[in-house]
Each structure stands twice: as structure tokens, then as C-alpha cells.
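Need a sequence for this fold. Nothing fancy.
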């Protein structure tokens, strides 16, 4: 019985993560954006996991090309928008990437192989951007901060929600009578 319980617990814990392993786990040698841009030829065909915010989606006949503003990733592979961006990169996918789904300013993480660089124009400036051949693409849901104290925060409740934001009257974890 104990063995079955242990197997069930392990199965349930492993099912908690719904991220693809290529997104959740960095490659063995995690190449940073700055390393790759300094010597792109040295890191050609290296596995990378990069992320950021979508800038532009271009669909060609046989592939899609997406331009991303690079941000460093957190432990789970999500772009850290609280850090400064370090530049731009492109990823290429053989699948059709719908611009209505992959909208501008959407957070995304891509895992794949670094294929080199590609020339792109940004305004009047021509840049050479790293190019990734994407194997896994993960679009992150919008981040919604959780306001623990409800409407208006601590102590700023509406009159019909009681003084501290909840009905009937909320103080900490306990409701108190009128």
C-alpha cells in the first residue's frame, strides 16, 4: 500500500508542471545573449533557450519569422520584464505563427538551435540579429498581480464592502460583527 501511495504522490507532483521540458529546463551549456552576439560563429548550432516580448511576426510561404526583444529568463523560463532588455533576436519556425495569437508585446520563450544571424532594418539602422531555429515555442499568459486585500488594497474598502475591503467587515483572517 505504501508503495502505491508513493507512486501516486510522485505522479501527482510530476504532473504539476505544464511547461514543456525544453522551456522549463535550460540547456546543459546555457549560452547568454551577450555571448552569442559577441561571437555568433563560435556558437552556431548550439542549443539555446531565450525569451522576451514579441515585436513583429512575418509569415512567408514556408516559414514564419518572429522578432523578439530579449529579456533574461527566470528559473522557470519566463522573461523577466523587471530587468533591462539586451537587444533583439529572431526565431524561425516551419509552423504558421498567427499574428492574431502571437500579438505584439506578448511574452514568449523559445528553445531551439542558434543558426547564425540575419540582417534586419530597425528604423534607419541596419542590425545583425541572432537567428534561432525554434523547436519549442511557449507563449506566456498575461501576468495578473494578486491583490490580497481586495478592492483598493489594505484599508481602502468601499462603503458597502466594509471598511477593510470585504463583506461584511474583514480584518486579517477573521470577520468581525458590525
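Here you go.
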Amino acid at each position: 500500500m505504501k508503495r502505491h501511495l508513493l507512486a501516486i504522490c510522485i505522479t501527482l507532483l510530476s504532473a504539476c508542471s505544464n511547461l514543456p521540458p525544453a522551456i522549463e529546463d535550460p540547456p546543459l551549456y546555457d549560452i547568454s545573449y551577450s555571448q552569442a552576439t559577441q561571437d555568433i560563429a563560435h556558437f552556431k548550432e548550439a542549443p539555446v533557450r531565450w525569451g522576451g516580448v514579441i515585436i513583429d511576426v512575418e509569415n512567408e510561404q514556408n516559414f514564419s519569422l518572429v522578432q523578439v526583444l530579449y529579456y533574461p529568463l527566470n528559473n522557470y523560463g519566463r522573461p523577466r520584464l523587471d530587468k533591462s532588455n539586451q537587444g533583439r533576436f529572431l526565431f524561425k519556425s516551419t509552423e504558421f505563427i498567427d499574428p492574431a495569437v502571437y500579438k505584439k508585446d506578448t511574452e514568449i520563450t523559445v528553445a531551439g538551435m542558434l543558426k547564425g544571424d540575419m540582417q534586419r532594418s530597425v528604423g534607419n539602422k541596419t542590425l545583425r540579429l541572432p537567428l534561432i531555429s525554434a523547436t519549442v515555442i511557449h507563449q506566456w499568459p498575461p501576468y495578473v498581480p494578486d491583490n490580497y486585500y481586495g478592492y483598493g488594497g489594505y484599508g481602502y474598502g468601499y462603503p458597502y464592502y466594509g471598511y477593510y475591503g470585504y463583506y461584511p467587515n474583514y480584518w486579517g483572517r477573521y470577520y468581525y460583527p458590525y
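For context: Residues 120 and 127 are 5 Å apart (CA to CA).
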